[in-house]
């Protein structure tokens, strides 16, 4: 099935999310939409899938114009979509989820899951998915849930499959398995639209790359093009992808976590007996798939979690049980994972956001009132230092781009002497150019002698920044390893294997077998 978009424009009020986009998707090819978060990729695919109606333009299937009033129309035309956030009901089985909205019935109107199970097994066998139709979705690993989403589209005879940021929640091993599945689907004649901003994966699987920037197509690129060239197309200027940093010079250990447990509202342990420490002048990166206790760990350090046991000390002083404001005033800088909800007050000015943690302290306060002159002076300094692109310091923070909002949060937290700096998902939703800048600032804070903790689900970011890496899986610490540990070893740890077992597994895999061949079956 050949799919074509002509002049697709989508406006939300005065915001132009897609601006006259042309796109051709052909059978047997992986067509990648590459662009930073907010570039308009997902909006375009939501138009294609019938979730949004285009303001202008048309969609053609096999040369004939079509109009989709909703996802049902798109599915009927042979288009399937796997969303970044899965559309599965956790308490249903795989078969029940796949039948939902497309139910086969027996005589008397009873649900016929046998037919659905048979289709799941056939597709699972054909593509090597290894998905049990009767397994509860909530019991499945994230990678298997994603396969269930793909099966759901294939059961409905999808010929065009849209994958929206499909690797965002996967371990490295699961990512490799997904890329292999994409190649198999391509070989079977399916057309795949792959939405991503991860250059490594894009280059590994794409046949065609279309780059979108600020809602417009800025060009097509060859998958063999250097990563730096692709990054430049995304942001509109040359970008250095290699982070240069000197080896860490760790000093005294001043931050310690011992036997930390955080109990969630449902009674389960979100953090389960974690112990770690960070020295002055080093970066410890906490890695893991999202939802394995990272959020609760950082919130416990900042005093935002209620049910905490164990010990957290900074310069020998216990933090557990103290108020958030006291912890911040003790010298803890904190960049939260969701800047728009927890890091900024969007309606406040940039200048006001830059003093949110010190608005009531000298020199930014005089008695019970703020000191506008000093607040404005501070804003001018930070805007220049962190290259914040804003019309003025008086502009509302919510009007800034994601990257500039993140710079405001980072500038605020790094504009005072710190005893500990924590940044959770420090570059989420940030363009490549801003990532380059923020990474340099994080390393500079380390080199200033501050203990630094980075929490990131982006493995490339972890490997770029970390001096040591701690891996969390279901709230438990799988181990702490050097910053140059291989991606394969980290991937095994992120899937629940201890550091020791992961290293052993990788060592065994690299050893030649008794017949003189390596583990991949090649000649020695």
TrEMBL record:
SMART domains listed in its UniProt record: AAA
Disordered: annotated segments: 499-524
CDD domains: ABC_Carb_Monos_I, ABC_Carb_Monos_II
Single GO MF descriptor: ATP binding
Ranges where the ABC transporter domain occurs: 3-239, 255-499
Keyword Ligase annotated: no
Keyword NAD part of the UniProt annotation: no
UniProt keyword list: ATP-binding, Nucleotide-binding
Biased composition (Low complexity): 504-518
InterPro entries: AAA+_ATPase, ABC_carbohydrate_import_ATPase, ABC_transporter-like_ATP-bd, ABC_transporter-like_CS, P-loop_NTPase
Descriptive protein name: ABC transporter ATP-binding protein
Organism: Arthrobacter hankyongi
Source organism phylogeny: Bacteria, Bacillati, Actinomycetota, Actinomycetes, Micrococcales
């Amino acid at each position: 099935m050949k799919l074509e978009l002509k002049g697709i424009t989508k406006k939300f009020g005065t915001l132009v999310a897609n601006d006259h986009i042309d796109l051709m998707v052909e059978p047997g090819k992986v067509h990648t939409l590459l662009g930073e978060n907010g570039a308009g990729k997902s909006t375009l695919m939501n138009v294609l899938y019938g979730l949004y109606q285009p303001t202008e333009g048309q969609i053609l299937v096999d040369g004939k114009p079509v109009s989709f009033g909703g996802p049902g129309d798109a599915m009927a035309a042979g288009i399937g979509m796997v969303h970044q956030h899965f559309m599965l009901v956790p308490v249903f089985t795989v078969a029940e989820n796949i039948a939902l909205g497309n139910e086969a019935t027996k005589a008397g109107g009873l649900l016929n899951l046998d037919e659905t199970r048979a289709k799941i097994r056939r597709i699972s066998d054909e593509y090597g998915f290894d998905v049990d139709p009767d397994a509860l979705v909530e019991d499945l690993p994230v990678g298997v849930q994603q396969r269930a989403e793909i099966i759901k589209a294939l059961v409905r005879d999808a010929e065009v499959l849209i994958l929206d940021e499909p690797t965002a929640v996967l371990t490295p091993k699961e990512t490799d398995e997904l890329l292999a599945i994409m190649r198999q689907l391509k070989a079977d004649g399916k057309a795949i639209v792959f939405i991503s901003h991860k250059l490594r994966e894009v280059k590994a699987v794409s046949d065609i790359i279309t780059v979108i920037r600020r809602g417009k197509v800025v060009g097509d690129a060859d998958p063999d093009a250097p990563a730096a060239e692709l990054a430049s197309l995304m942001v509109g200027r040359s970008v250095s992808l290699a982070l240069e940093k000197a080896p860490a010079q760790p000093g005294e250990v001043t931050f310690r976590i011992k036997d930390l447990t955080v109990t969630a509202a449902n009674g389960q342990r979100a953090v389960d007996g974690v112990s770690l420490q960070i020295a002055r002048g080093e970066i410890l990166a906490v890695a893991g798939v999202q939802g394995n206790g990272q959020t609760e760990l950082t919130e416990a350090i900042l005093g935002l979690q209620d049910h905490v046991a164990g010990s957290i000390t900074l310069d020998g002083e216990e933090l557990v049980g103290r108020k958030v404001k006291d912890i911040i005033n003790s010298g803890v800088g904190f960049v939260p994972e969701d800047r728009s909800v927890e890091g900024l007050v969007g309606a406040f000015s940039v200048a006001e956001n830059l003093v949110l943690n010190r608005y009531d302290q000298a020199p930014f306060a005089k008695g019970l009132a703020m000191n506008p002159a000093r607040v404005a002076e501070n804003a001018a300094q930070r805007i220049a230092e962190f290259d914040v692109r804003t019309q003025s310091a008086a502009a509302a923070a919510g009007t800034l781009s994601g990257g500039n909002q993140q710079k405001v949060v980072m500038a605020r937290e790094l504009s005072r002497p710190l005893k500990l700096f924590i940044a959770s998902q420090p570059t989420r939703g940030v363009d490549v150019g801003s990532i380059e800048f923020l990474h340099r600032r994080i390393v500079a804070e380390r080199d200033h002698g501050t203990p630094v903790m980075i929490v990131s689900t982006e493995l490339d970011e972890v490997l770029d920044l970390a001096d040591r890496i701690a891996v969390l899986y279901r709230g438990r610490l799988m181990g702490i390893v050097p910053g140059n540990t291989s991606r394969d070893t980290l991937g095994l740890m992120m899937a629940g294997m201890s550091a020791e077992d992961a290293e052993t597994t990788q060592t065994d895999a690299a050893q030649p077998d008794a017949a003189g061949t390596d583990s991949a079956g090649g000649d020695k």
